[in-house]
Design brief:
By secondary structure, this protein is α/β, with parallel strands linked by helices. 36% of the residues lie in helices and 13% in strands. The protein has 15 helices and twelve strands. The chain has a seven-stranded mixed β-sheet with strand order 1-7-6-5-4-2-3, with helices on both faces. It starts with 8 loop residues before the first helix and ends with a helix.
Length: 428
Amino acid sequence: MLDKSKLRFETKQIHGGYKVDKTGSRGIAIYPTAAYHFESCDHAARLFELSEAGNIYTRLHNPTTAAYEERIASLYGAVGALAVSSGMASIFITISALAEAGDNIVASPYLYGGTYNQFRVSLRRLGIDCRIAADDSIEAFESLIDERTKMLYVESMGNPTCNVLDLELLGQLAKRYDIPFVVDNTFGAAGYLCNPFDWGTNIVVDSATKWINGHGTAMGGIIVDGGNYNWRNGKFPQIDGPSEGYHGLNLCDAFGASAFIVKCRVDGLRDYGCSTSPFDAYLMLLGLETLSLRVRHEVESCRRLAEYCRSHPKVERVSYVGFEEHPSYANAKRYYTMGASSVFTLELKGTLESTVRFVESLQLMGNMTMIGDSISVVTHPASTTHKQLSESDMAAAGVTPTLLRISMGLENVEDIIDDFEQAFAHID
C-alpha cells in the first residue's frame, strides 16, 4: 500500500482530504446546510457530549469544510486544522483558547497592522496583556516572559517589512519556558515556502484569504495544531482539566495530541461563531490545488521586479528579503524553501503626495490591501494597513510615508514593469 503520509507537497495539495464518494464525483461536494438530522435523541446526546464524532451544526463542523481542514493538516504534517472566518479570527480563537484576563502574550515587533491593533487595543480591553519585543533578538523576547505568559507569537515573515526571525531559536526559547510557540505563517503559503513545525513551532495560524485561496474570492483563516505541545504541564487547566462547558470532560484525556484544536472548535466556534461557510471552504480547496504552481511563479516574478526597482533612479531603496543586503536574508534562506516570498517593499524618493500619485497612476496593479492574489497588488501601508498606528509605532514597524508593499500575481512580470515605467513618468 502507498504510504500517503510520505506524499510530496504538490500531491498532498490535491489529494489531501479527497475521497471518492458513492456518486463517483471528481469534485468535493459543497454541503450548503446549517443543520443535520440525528439518528436518534441518544445519537444527538453523544454528539453534544463529544463522545462520538459527527455533524451537529455547521457553525462547528461541515463535510466540505472538514475536507479542507484535512488537506491543510496533511500539508503541514499536523494532527488537525480548524477553518475559521478570517485570519484575524484564527489569531483571536487561538489566544482565547490559551489566555484569560491577567495573562500575557509576548509578540514580535514585526506584525501586520490589524494584528498589532488586536493585540495592543482589543485584547487589553479583555484583560490580556500583549508585550511587544523591542527588537528581533532572543534577549528582547526573553525579557518579557513571566509566569503568566501563555504564548510566544511571531510571523514567519513580517508584514510588510518581510523580516524573518530565527524560528528555531525562538522555538527553543518557548520550549525552555514551556509555553506554546505560535507562528502566523500566512507568507509561508500553507507550508510550501515555510513549514514552521519543522523548527519547533506548536501552533500555526494563517490568513487563508491570501495564498491558500490565491484568487481574492473568499475570506478565511486556519488554525493548525502540530500536536507537539505537552498540555499536561499544569499551565492550561482549560485543556487538561475539567471543561466547564462539557460537564467536566478533560480534553486531553478524550482527544490526546489533538486536544488544543478540539478546544478551538468546541469552545471557540461554539461561543464566538466565527466559522467559515462551506462555499468558502470549497473555494479554498480549489485554490490549494494550484498553490505550488502559483507561488513559484509569483516568487520568481517578485525577484525580477525587485531587481528592476533597485536600479530605478526614482526609488530610494528596495527591501527584498532575497537580496543579500536584507537583514533577514540568512534567515529567509534557511527557513523559506525559495529564500523569499512574493512580496517586497520599496520606498520612493519624494513625498507622501508623490507616492500617492504614483500608486494612482498604476493601471495593471490593484490598489488594495491584499497579498497573495492572482492579480499583482500595490499597498500604501501608511494610509491603509497601518493607518491606525501612531507615528512612533509606524516607525517601529518600519512603515514610512513613501513605503509601498508589492505583492506579485500571475501576470507576465514584464507587463508589470511596463506599468511601473508609465507610473514613474507621473512623478518628479
